[in-house]
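Repro:
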Amino acid sequence: MIVEFALSITFTVPGPAPHITPVQFNEPIQQVLTYPPVGVVNVVSGLELPSDTLSAFENDFLDGSVYFGAFAITKDFGYGYVTGANSLEAAREIATEECLKHGPRCLVYAEILPENYVPLQSGQISMSAEAANYFHNPDPSWNQFRAMAVGEDGAYSVVWNYGSPREAADAALTDCNGYVIDDLPGLRDMPCVLVPFK
């Protein structure tokens, strides 16, 4: 017995979709772009998802609408997704690499962007809402010397109470790079960079 049904969900981002120019996180960082913790879902494909894929999309990927996120699908509706990356470009790449575990070709079906998203320019980085919270609200007990490092893939680290700025920076980079995604062979390197921390 074959049972078919369709559920149509439409999410829109205000205004035209921006042209995305990939910008890698490279030092020196001149500006950190952060956003309110509200994700906006942008479905970029009009394909109807079968029930299993639709369930993963609605119940796993959309859970909390955590930006930066992307959901990619194969032609047979295998899928891969990520949420909590530190850039839209990284989210797209990671979701595609996860999806390629299930088929030879993938396309991005949907994205989760922050409200008022602006594409990155050279010298800028962005952060997930979780990392941005630490960036904007350092704990008063952290004293000096503290440092923060982030990677495009969602890795981040905050360290504090070191003996010097250099020790804090080295510790933040080492810790952050320990969380960088390294199990997707086709994914470009996304090492952590130091962030000008408050």
